[in-house]
Each structure stands twice: as structure tokens, then as C-alpha cells.
Amino acid sequence: MENVAIFDSPGKGRGLKASKEFWAGDVIFSEASLAAVVFDSHAERICHSCFRRQEKLQRCGQCKFAHYCDRTCQRAGWAEHKQECGAIKAYGKVPNENIRLVSRIMWRIDKEGSLVSDLQLTTLDELEDHLNNMQEDDLKELKVDIHNFLDYWPRTSKQHTIDDISHIFGVINCNGFTVSDQRGLQAVGVGLFPNLCLVNHDCWPNCTVILNHGSQSAVNTIFHSQRRIELRSLGKIAEGEELTVAYVDYLNVSEERQRLLKTQYFFDCTCEHCSNKTHDDIKMGGREVEGVKPSDEQVKEATNYCFDMMQKMDKARLNGDYHEVVKICRQCIEKTEPVLAETHIYQLRMWSTMSEVQAYLQYFEEAADYAHKMVEGYIKLYHPNNAALGMAAMRAGVTHWQAGLIEVGHGLVCKAYAILMVTHGPTHPITKDLEAMRMQTEMELRMFKQNEYVYHSMREAALKNKPMTMLHEPKSVEEGIKNLFHRRK
């Protein structure tokens, strides 16, 4: 950890600062999880060792709960699962993800005695648990978890005090990191990374965090590389500058970000973007046409209408009624698009949903139009190297390619690739997928420029012989990763 140093940050507690200069895309440090578990809701669809999504998983023959890609992953995950397996069998049921994570942490502490090493900057005792700041309902839930933990914890394992158990529950409640699937598209689990907990929040950060699943494909586990998080620089960072990440999505207005941070992480954000309410005006503003803006009352009315329609849209989406989703979105867009700015966050949400659902239904041209509008709005709001912008550009590029709009599609794919090279790095699976797409669209673009008619004829013939694969259902993709740290709802 020679690249960083701990310091006392006024008003924030401890923090990390750079011990040398960094540039965009540099890995400042990487860290393996102290422990990590799959979410309860994904237990049968995600490998409990490598956190990859697989269609067919093999179930642990003992506890019947843990699932793995194959015997290689099962062997790789046995060290973490061994005691958990026996405890689940003895308990007779599977405890929730928080209890499972706390148990894995405590088993590791008991096994290793001390978790402090040259690579670890802090101990669990030094991490904040914020038990004194918890709301009454959260405290009740915590007490239930502790009670269930005590029933679950084997009598043959080392016994711990209630204070120690409560502290670890508090730590993971406000410091548990959301673990994604192998492509980084969906939150599938939660883990604890102690060094990451020292990195403070800023709504306009200079770093981002990405989960690197390492290499899990080798038959012999000795050749596996460890699953880890990477703290990556978003731009130039000077020596001695504080390292920061965003705990919540910048797409929220400052008041909402401050509310989320206070509720979930128990601090008041005083960053420059919150203090100055940067971009709040255009996030909730009206559309200017030839120098004329709608009145505040018109913007308020359109905003409220859009909010109400989003509630209906979410309900239809949850029910899998995607044609109803399209109907609701279309009705809302027709009424509010002339009034709301192209950066209005509700408008962006409608465009994003419309693009995603129409692509799923294979109405690619309309999907591409809305995806492009969404990216244009994101560009005006997000940091140039924000991962959410890169993912939106990637989705828009693929949608344009599916619609046969190869010129715009290639441009968007290239933009996405440039961003993800910084935020994810060249070895991440999604960056590799994007590189293959970039090469494909570049080849097709050259063909298109040589002879437009031949290009479209060949494309049409290819699609007849091999229809495009259906996309994932929108409701599964939309779960996404909204915040940096995870709190169980």
C-alpha cells in the first residue's frame, strides 16, 4: 500500500491521500475482500466462489445452499464455505446475507488471529459502526439479526461478546461494498474491504472503484488470481491530494444526495458540488427553445406528471408488461419533452427506460433514438470519465449497431471504450467485450463507406440467417449498482 497514506480529514475522520502522482486509469491500490457473500435473492443464479452468472450451477451436496460454476470453483471457495456449510446444516435453514457475511468475517478472524498485515491499513476495531446514529427501526432489525446470529453461530466455534458482534454488524451496515457480476452490470452480493472503507466521499470524486473478478478459469486453482476491488484514478491526482469516491449517484440533485448520505452513511456532505448546488438547475429545469423557457409553473407541473408516470411505469415493468411500459413512457414523453430540459433527471429516466425496453422488444431504431438522447444528457451532467456515462454510451452504441446505424454506433462504442479503459481497465471482461465490438463496428464502417448498398444487403442477409439474440429482460438489468456501498433494505 505504498501508493497511499492515512491522514486525519477535518470533519470526515480518517482518509487516504496519494503518496505520488497518478494519471487517468492508474490503479492506486487493489484489495481482496475480507469476506463476501452472494445476495439471498441471487443465491441460485450466481456462483458463490467467483460471483459469475451462470445458467447451470452445481449445488453443494452438503448444505444444499451454495452454488458453484463447477468443481474448480467449489474447491476455490471451500476455505470460506467449509464452516458455513456445517453451520447451515446444523441450523436447519439459511440465515440472511448480513448474518452470513458477519459469520465469515468472524471465522476468518478466529482462524488468523489478527487480520493486520503490510497490505492492510486499518483493523475492524478502527472502522466506524455508527450504532449510536441508527434509527429505531434499523436498531430493531439489527437486534433481530444478532439474535438469529447467536442461534446460527456454532457452539464449537469461538464465542464472542455481544458488543463485538454488534460492532461488526454495524461496520458492514455502512461499509459493506456492493459486489457485481463478472460484467459489472448487476449487483449480486456484498463484501467487506477494510482499506476501501478509509476512502472518503465526494460527489465529484477523483477515483472510482471496480470489482476485478481475476482469473477463475484455470482447472488448477493454484493458477487463479484473486477476486479484488481496484481503486482507479479518473484523472490527474497530485501527490498529497485526498483520494475520494462517490458513495451515491451524482444524477440525484444535491438535496437528495445529502439526504441519502445522511440516512445511509451518517454524515453531512459539504463538497463543492453540494454547497454550490452544481447542475441542480439543469437537472430539474425547463427546455429552452430559441431563447424562450417555459414558466416555473409549467416545469413544476411537467415534473410532477413525469414523477407520477414513473410510478406507473415501474409497476408495469415489475409485472413484465413491457408493452404497457412503452405506452406509459410514450404518453409521458409526448407531454413532457417539449417542457423539460434534455438534462432533466426524470426525462433521462424515461428515455433510458424507453430505449432499454424497445431494444428488448427489438424496435431498435426507436430505441437508438432515445439512447442517444440519454447519452447527450449524461454528457452534460457526469464527469467525463464516469462509469455510468461509459456504460450508457456502450448501450447506445450497441443499440445503434442493432438498428443498422453504423456510423453513430461506432462513434458511441469508441467513446464508451475510452471511458471504460479508465474506469475498468483493459483486462476487465466488459472492456474486452467492448474492444471486440469496436473492432467489429470499425470493420463494418469501412465496408459501409466503400459501398452502402452492399453493406446493407449483406447485413440483411446475415440477420435472416442468424437473427439477433434477444437482450436480457429490462427488469433484471435495471437492478444495477446504484450506490458504492451496500445497505440491506
TrEMBL record:
Q: Which GO terms describe its biological process?
A: cardiac muscle myosin thick filament assembly; heart contraction; methylation; regulation of cardiac muscle fiber development; sarcomere organization; sarcomerogenesis; skeletal muscle fiber development; skeletal muscle myosin thick filament assembly
Residue span(s) of domain SET: 2-248
The chemistry this enzyme catalyses reads: L-lysyl(4)-[histone H3] + 3 S-adenosyl-L-methionine = N(6),N(6),N(6)-trimethyl-L-lysyl(4)-[histone H3] + 3 S-adenosyl-L-homocysteine + 3 H(+)
> This protein's superkingdom?
Eukaryota
Q: Which UniProt keywords apply?
A: Metal-binding, Methyltransferase, S-adenosyl-L-methionine, Transferase, Zinc, Zinc-finger
Q: Which GO terms describe its molecular function?
A: histone H3K4 trimethyltransferase activity; myosin binding; zinc ion binding
* EC number(s) from the headed UniProt entry: 2.1.1.354
PROSITE patterns of this UniProt entry?
A: SET, ZF_MYND_2
Return the Pfam families for the record: SET, zf-MYND
Q: Which GO terms describe its cellular component?
A: M band; nucleus
Q: Where is the MYND-type domain?
A: 47-85
Record has Transferase as a keyword? yes
Q: Which PANTHER family match?
A: HISTONE-LYSINE N-METHYLTRANSFERASE SMYD (PTHR12197), HISTONE-LYSINE N-METHYLTRANSFERASE SMYD1 (PTHR12197:SF184)
Q: What protein does this entry describe?
A: [histone H3]-lysine(4) N-trimethyltransferase
Species source reads Xiphophorus maculatus
